[in-house]
## 1
Amino acid sequence: MFMKRIVTILVLLLIYKLSLSQEWDGDFNGIDSLWNESPPSSINAISILDMYNYNDTILYLGGGFAYVNESSANSFASWNTDTIRVYQEGVDWGGVDAIIKYKDTLYIGGSFNTASGSPNTTNIAVWNGSNWQSTNLGQADSDVHDFCIYHDTLFVAGNFGHIGALECNKIAAYNGEEWINVGSMGMWTKALAVFNDELYAGGYWGVRKYLGGAEWETFNPGPNGYVNELMVDTINSLLLVGGEFSHIGEEVSVCSAIWDGFNWISTGWGGSTTIWPQASAYYRGEFYTGNGAVIEDDVWTFWIRKWNGEAWDSIGGTFDSTISSLEVFRDTLYIGGYFAFWGGDSPVPDKRNKGMVKLFMPENGCDYLKPRINAYTDTFYLNNGEAVVNLYNNNPYADSWDWDFGDSQTGDIKDPVHTYTQVGEYNVQVTVSQEGCVKTANKTIYIELGSNSNIQNYENIQMQVFPNPSSNGFTLKTSLPNYKNAEIKIVGLNGHLKDIISVTSETTVIPTKGWKPGAYVCNLFVDGKLVKAEKLIYE
């Protein structure tokens, strides 16, 4: 009996602690209701498809709703935590899926016929301060799904084939003066994000990286299905990929996965269903997503969950329908979707539906800091008695990095280059400090002789890159017994993969289109093994 009481007390304490750890709130000062039908007090289906935080001062709302309080809004409004604002008559016959401010101008995109009846505003429109108007090129001929600013240029993604007279197959860009053709995606594009100063896109074909001009590179391996959403963790240099897929290569990773710039991190099964466009956020140092679902007696239950770095944690909420947008605004997570109620409450006839709720989570201490050690291989080979190893940490804004290379040598920079002189197994460790938080990561690397490869003597391999420095491409010259299973991997800024090029002859051209000036590393792999590396300077 005594033990039973102890267990009961511990359970009650845990429930009490959890109740203090998060705070749900469905009240929004100045917003009494968002609704579609008359009377406004009825519970009716609306949707919040995108929320956009502008400088933590204004939260823009886009979706499918007719009224805010007693004002006609038609799928678009903004809120400053005190006052709700509508913009003329909103959009006609459709919804707003994407919102952004570019060069102090507000843009909206979606599947609408026009913005307040203004000419040439189908699917994309600009707010000039008092009225909706068309872009200087005109309208899109199909849906616009996402916006992103990259290198001071606005990129637009969707299902369109033209914006005005410009042919742009599911992707386009605008520099503030003219529209630019930036390639062809073939099928719809749902998501855009900037990760480690590179532009990524998600869509029907999985994940692609922008190479500059009109060139895109498709990830292989990558998700084996559709990608709807991309979200970036800048503290730990991680990219969350969400959508409708089950695997990354051979790894089970259902509807979500994480790219760290070097490797895919599987997020497992996690009880997940589809992650919709805009339905993720980076909050309190962790990835949050919506639309996890379980079927019990033909009843779907939706909730919010977060990735703690190793597994998914359910946050709860018990929504009655799809979660379609997440956004962090003033230190609080805002959740929007098609739901009429959340938290297990039944709809109340007198309560006007908002289609959104907010969640406040307390600070989680140092959990946000998740250091990793990366390299482009685990095994290195001695060349003239030395193996030069490039190591990379994923925390660009840390206060300090303390490295132990496992051979009684140490270092204190983010991405060190260390030389080993003896064959062996080494446990490499980095201790990262940031704003009082201290975390450690480990990685085992192996230093071997080159006798177990098809190429018996790595010391005889010659590799030269010229001109170096260069401002317009490099040429690689190699001497190999044969040119089977040879490739170079170009490592970009912060150690992230820039390009993979097959080596099929004595000379190989390394194009530099889209590169930023700085230091890069050219790694030569033979039979999957790193045998040579040379630093490149691009001016």
Note: The radius of gyration is 26 Å.
## 2
Amino acid sequence: MTAEPALKIRDGGARMDPVTASVIQGAMENIAVEMGHKLMRMSYSSIIRESEDFGAALTDPAGRQLCETPQSTPLQSGPIPGYIEGILQIFAERGDVLAPGDVIIHNSAYHGASHGPDVAFCVPVFVAGNLVGFSVTTAHHLDIGALSPGSCGIVDAMDAYAEGLQMKALKIYDAGRPNGPLWQMLRDNIRASDLVVGDMEAQIAAARIGADRFIDLIERYGLATVEAAYEDLMDYSERIMRDAIAALPDGRYNARTFIDGFEDSEDPARRDLPIEVTAIVAGDTITVDFAGTAPQVADRPINMPLKGTTDCAVWLTIRSILLDTAVHGHIPQNSGLTRPIKIVAPPDSLVNPTFPAPTIARFCSGNQAADTLMKALGQAVPRQISAGVGNLHVVSFSGIRATSHWVHMEIHEGCYGGRFGKDGLDAVDTLYANTRNNPIEDIESHLPLRVNRYELRDDVCPPGKWRGGIGSIREFEFTENGGVSVEGEGHVYPPWGFDGGADGHTSALIFVPNQGNSVPLPSKLPNKMARAGDKIVMVGPCGGGYGDPFERDSIRVVEDVRDGYVSIARARSDFGVVITASLELDEAETEKLRREQRSH
């Protein structure tokens, strides 16, 4: 081990010189990047390999995050501190002890995990016999042994036990020795086990790589130096966040939105569910209070674990709005960023359920929690938010070939609302999703599915000075018998418009049988059998508009018409822009029409 540089400790100041701290920061971030690349390239399933629905991070011995891979989704790397806290809690309760060579598998939604299919593999890192941290990978798995195929669209689970295997801080490697019975249990209880277990083995390999690189870093600089560096880095990230919060006007900022819930249910407690947020800014701290949010749905899995979903929705939204990378540059992503943020969530509510309330389909409701917080913060920083965000469909396709299951998970993207100075982003995963879409070529080469259509919606451009993002349409056709299930949102409530902008447009699902009439489907669909030739059409939402649409640059409206986003008729009625049959701007008529509108 090399000699350690002199540490500089002073009251309120840094523990070490900033150059060494920056070098160590870069080294830790590169470790996380390598973990992410190795995991992505070693994985079998498209949800990890193509969509990049995974996370990788290093933590200290208490679970404080030191760095994360930038390929990750916020809903994968964000919960990792909670995973470690949950593992340490369970180990303490059981009297278990961590040892070199251990690998822990963990997916308990009530002990830090986001939901059951997001499984973590944690490698404790030891130096000279002392625990110095954890190397952790997380990933969404295609099946976890729940009541129906796939690990999404399980919207009829009545409790946590119906959602699949619960692995609470189990040693899948014990001091370097594989736990054979546990591995066998996984293979025997998971559909498409070759894919899923292969992905799990890739996670373990990537986590071990992270542990080895972390040990190399400590041996190069010394443990005291590395610890001092990451303490300084967390303090730095905390100061940046506190400064951003302190720039806000003190006050209480409230917003309320609704989720569909189970729109086809006869039980009013399962549908039209409010999410209410009050953001309380006081100096350099912010409290996010969810009082007024709907009670938990005790027998349906759209509840959001406080640790792993609700907290990540809050952190992501505040981080994105107040510390936009385009303005602030690179900021170390670590647990220091969350210190100035307090979350208050009523027990037994949609955002803080009590076990065994099911949680596996918490994805879209969590996205709506983030969107509601953004709406509240728009009152304080109107130029730093987008208008209402279009939510997602998470679709599970599955079937059996001979005696083997195949499973595919499709995240059908939403879109963003308009922003100050910019239109909303079209057809992208939103907020804490941040995954890539699956290439059509990859889907059709591996699965008995054909993608017949993939296109933006026509003539639904949400009006605003900066228009809302436009959703996509994706049509899947089964080439063999199979099944489909969906967890989604936004069929009832459109994304909200902001500052005079119009609301966006709702999404939809349509089942088109090979024989018979088309059938509209709710946003949450339990497993539905399909035959070869049957089709599922997914219609994405459109985000809210931002600002008065009659102030939109008329040339941009003309371009939207030429691109097919807006019809000539809607350009006139929604934006006050008159366009000729040859798709040219009629400036005189446009000015006249807009002048008449302003006079009203």
Note: Confidence is low (pLDDT under 50) at residues 1-12.
